[in-house]
Amino acid sequence: MELVRIGCACLVGLVFAVSAVSKLRDFEGFAGSVPALVPAWPGRARLLAIATTALEALVPPLLIAPVTAPAGFGVAAVLLTAFTAAIAASVRRGRRTACRCFGPSSVPLGPRHLVRNGVLLTCAVLGALSPGGLPPAGGVAVAAAAGLAGAVLIVSLDDIVELFARNP
């Protein structure tokens, strides 16, 4: 089970690192998109954008050390639950809000983003429930590579879907 924790830490950590960096690279664009996702907080959109980006940036370093990894998985799980609720509400309202999870995009939020967040939330919970410890180096390398490959697929999900949608 230690390998599950390591794989989940690599996957969740890389996804949150990419998300935080992409938001910092276009912070004004991200902050401008928040009111469309959370219309109940129009006056607090910038504060919510700052808090979201700061918490996302906090997740990867927390996941590095076994002693802080449960906190990192916990922060990730809370954020993913909030993101999923905001996306579900946006989809239910029929809004075509663009996904800005990994930087500027014209892809509207939809069911695939809910599935993506469900996969990430499952990984965060599995990682939090897995025991600490350090398995053999070979196992660590395989688990880390699997987690990082999964993260690349998740970050590139919209591009992959778009590629196959154009070429049936």
Automatic annotation (TrEMBL):
**Which GO biological process annotations does it have?**
methylamine metabolic process
- Where, by residue number, does the polypeptide cross the bilayer? 71-92
Q: Which UniProt keywords apply?
A: Membrane, Transmembrane, Transmembrane helix
Q: Which InterPro entries match?
A: Methylamine_util_MauE
The segment(s) forming the Methylamine utilisation protein MauE domain are 4-129
Recorded GO cellular component terms are:
membrane
Q: What is its main location?
A: membrane
Q: Where in the cell is it found?
A: Membrane
Q: How does it sit in the membrane?
A: Multi-pass membrane protein
Q: Does the keyword Transferase apply?
A: no
- Pfam families found in the cross-reference section: MauE (PF07291)
Its name, as the record gives it, is Putative membrane protein YphA (DoxX/SURF4 family)
Q: Which organism is it from?
A: Actinomadura coerulea
